[in-house]
Amino acid sequence: MVSIQNLNKAFGRNQVLDNLSLQINQKGVTAILGPNGSGKTTLIKSILGMTIPDKGTITINGRDIKKDVLYRENLDYLPQIADFPDNLKVKELIKMIKDLRNKPARDETLIRFFGLEPFLDKKLNTLSGGTRQKVNLILAFMFDSPLMILDEPSSGLDPVSLIRLKEWINMEKAQGKIILVTSHIMSFVEEIAENIAFLLDGKIYFNGSLSQLRTKTGQEDLEHAIASLLLPSTPLRDRGKPPLRSCPAPNLKL
Amino acid sequence: MIKLFSHITMVFFLMTSVLSAQKTEVCKTCEISTIARAVEKAKPFDTIEVRAGTYKEYNIGITKPLTITGEGNPVIDGEHKGEIITIRSDNVTLAGFTLVNVGTSYTTDYAAIRVVKSKDFNIRNNTLERLFFGIYLEKARQGKVLNNTIKGDAVNEYNSGNGIQLWYSNNVEVSGNTVQNVRDGIYLEFSDNIEIRNNKSIDNLRYGLHFMFSNHDTYTENLFENNGAGVAVMFSKFIKMRDNTFRKNWGPSSYGLLLKEITDSELTRNTFESNTQGVRAEGVSRMTFTENDFANNGYAVKIQGACYSNTFSRNNFLYNTFDLSYSGRINENNFDHNYWSDYYGYDLNRDGTGDVPYRPVKLFSHMTNRIPEAIVLLRSTFTGLLDFSEKVTPVFTPPGLMDNAPEMKKIIW
Amino acid sequence: MLKIIKYSFFDLVRSRWSYAYFLFYLLLAAVLLFLNNNLSGAIITLMNVNIILVPLIATVFGVMYHYNSREFTNLLLAQPLKRSAIFTGQYLGIAGSLSLSLVLGLGIPFAAYGLFRSTMIWNFAILMITGVALTFIFTSLAFNIALSNENRIKGFGYAILLWLLLAVVYDGIFLLLLASFQEYPLEKFSLAATVLNPIDLSRILILLKLDISALLGYTGAVFKQFFGTSTGSILSSLMLLLWIVLPLWRMRKTAERKDF
């Protein structure tokens, strides 16, 4: 259970999170969507404790995250960019993270699941982007934590691996976990997410289930539903190019 | 005429006396068992032979021409009571003794052997230990001090004496002696025409060799090592310094050779090695520095001011921290034709001398002359950069101070 | 934190930079000792390396490591670890591995040369102590700069500037002050100015151990007297320690407040 109260964060004069409040109680996947610069990453990083908010509180399972770092014991995070120390072999990296977390891990199952066996003895800097992302996924899923935050999990994956990833996420969902996902591939979000939290200009613009969103916007297609959230006045029935809004001009690549 | 006459009488006198000379033996079991008694009984030009043993005697006064020799290294022990032997007569030879335990006094300069107002003395092959002053020549002349070994145990300057001291003495030869652990190894004051050759002066508290107000003297082939302050030549003229070695005179106020107020002298073929300052010159004029080796010194040559018309040529400056330190803006000395290990110029016309002049004064050493405290920046990156930039475009160092014809190869002499 | 030290340390120990650094010292010391055959001269040359190169390498390495391991750091930040532990661990890891390269690189040739039987061992020891201290000092300064500057170019710029300031400019200002206050007694001032800058302090500590200290003359005698006393050695160790601890303290504070 994640509870965010009145979160404020500014970088210089740029107010990124503006009195944002969000409750995520429901199990399953919640997709955090929003245009670039809407504060998604800042929000995720605040939950992870990597960004220190100016104001507001975040509690996870009733514990204020400012108080201690141990809440991260029960949290798994998949960073957006899979960059690792160059000199390490895949095997060593996994061993290291296991060593740091000091928890039982299901790394072997995951390695088999994503077919990473041939790469275990390779150094990380020799791996392709997709393979690195698989390593990234293994590190994130390894500890079976009740809360997961996945930042662009599908990036760089080939179709087979993407299917595997979806399978795994569905399996995790079945175990009743809370999973936060950001992605700009709407079809992917549509397939895995039950809930959508839509951010705009540092505020929660929409928070509800996928079906609620469809009902609200009258759009079947998620991409269009989101677009019409942004531009309620513009009819979007015709599948044309995303229209431009004059001011402010959020990039519509979600 | 009178002089010639006196010479003839002397030769005559000598001949008769040698013919009539007698030999007296001294030993513990002999008829005469003390040296003082033998001296007292002897006639002029007699020979006294002293056998091995220890003779506890002091204040032995010799007032007639005598040859006194030790056989089997007899020891005369002064038991710290005063002077041991005082010579007040011409033609005295003293050889083969070990003299120990000279008395120490703050009012009288007791010596192991003193020569007073006499000539033609010959002091040789003696060993002096536990002494105050060693051999003290007072207004003596035309004598020889040869192959003696003087080994002191000086700790403080104020209560120790000098190894060999010459005071108002002329035409004396001092050679083959070894002097160590005294205040000044060899000390000359108001003494002219002295020849000092082939001595070793080591581990002395103050100077290995010290000249004051003495002219026309020569010292050659001596070794001066690890003395408190090295060799000092002060207020003197016409001194020849050749083939000596000045080594390891190392300490904050130490140097190989201190030249102070000295003119018309020469320094030739000497070796200065590992001294804090090889040569330190103050008020030196018309002097030539030729064919000397300066190796691994802190400062090879330090010129402290008022030095004019000196010529440095054919010297080797090898791996010194500073080749030359010079205070003052104007240079009146000549530094051409030396070899500098720090010279990185070239010789395109192959005449053996570099085509670019060498500037031996580093900017940093120039600065420490003006601001002594700046020395704490020794070997810092900043001063390295300063020296480099000054080398490329000289601004601060005296403009004329350079070797216009630096040698490309080390000079062999 | 121990685990982070371990990982940062081994990460660096295995990098080719570490090897290059180690081999450089190995080669330098070996050439100096076996071709020159002059222990005292070798130590003076190594001192010059010590006061120029060691701080520079530590600065550049520190900044570089911080920027290059940003994603890895992010990975660590998401783990249940304290931030101060992460950065202190990384810092100790990198400073430790640099020190190891230095100590082994110089130590092996010296040991082979037979240093440990000679009286020069204390000179060598002071060389090593100051070298390691400078590595720790400049790595912590570098970490500070890197943490406070997201922009790599800026970070590198400031780091080099800081090195230049302490290694060169400081002495220039020092000399300038000495020149402008010539008529006053300057021993106390130069002593203070030396103690305050870790590079100058290291240089003087080494110089005083060597014969060359005789060149320092009267000022040197004052220095020798000061550093010879227990107050002097305690003060200089304290100063070196302060140069490590203060930036480290600031680094931990910055890290606690920083957004990643």
Automatic annotation (TrEMBL), chain A:
Gene Ontology MF terms in the entry: ATP binding; ATP hydrolysis activity
Domain ABC transporter, chain residue ranges per copy: 2-226
Keyword Methyltransferase: no
Classification via Pfam families: ABC_tran
Domain of life: Bacteria
InterPro entries with a match to the protein in the record: AAA+_ATPase (IPR003593), ABC_transporter-like_ATP-bd (IPR003439), ABC_Transporter_VariousFunc (IPR051782), P-loop_NTPase (IPR027417)
Keyword Isomerase assigned: no
SUPFAM superfamilies: P-loop containing nucleoside triphosphate hydrolases (SSF52540)
Family matches, as PROSITE patterns: ABC_TRANSPORTER_2
Keywords: ATP-binding, Nucleotide-binding, Transport
PANTHER family reported in the protein's UniProt record: ABC TRANSPORTER ATP-BINDING PROTEIN ALBC-RELATED (PTHR42939)
The protein, known as: ABC transporter ATP-binding protein
Lineage: Bacteria, Pseudomonadati, Bacteroidota, Flavobacteriia, Flavobacteriales
UniProtKB/TrEMBL annotation, chain B:
Pfam families in UniProt: NosD (PF05048)
Name by which UniProt lists this protein: Nitrous oxide reductase family maturation protein NosD
Domain of life: Bacteria
Keywords associated with the record: Repeat, Signal, Ubl conjugation pathway
Gene3D superfamilies membership: Single-stranded right-handed beta-helix, Pectin lyase-like (2.160.20.10)
PANTHER family, sorted: F-BOX ONLY PROTEIN, F-BOX ONLY PROTEIN 10
InterPro entries: Carb-bd_sugar_hydrolysis-dom, NosD_copper_fam, NosD_dom, Para_beta_helix_rpt-2, PbH1, Pectin_lyas_fold, Pectin_lyase_fold/virulence, SCF-Subunits/Alg-Epimerases
First and last residue of the signal peptide: 1-21
UniProt xrefs under SUPFAM superfamilies: Pectin lyase-like (SSF51126)
Residue ranges of every copy of the Carbohydrate-binding/sugar hydrolysis domain listed in the record: 50-189, 196-356
Transmembrane segments: none
Pathway(s) served: Protein modification; protein ubiquitination
From TrEMBL, chain C:
Keyword field: Membrane, Transmembrane, Transmembrane helix
Bilayer-crossing regions: 20-36, 42-65, 91-115, 121-147, 159-181, 226-249
Superkingdom as given in the UniProt entry: Bacteria
The protein's name in its UniProt record: ABC transporter permease
Organism: Sinomicrobium weinanense
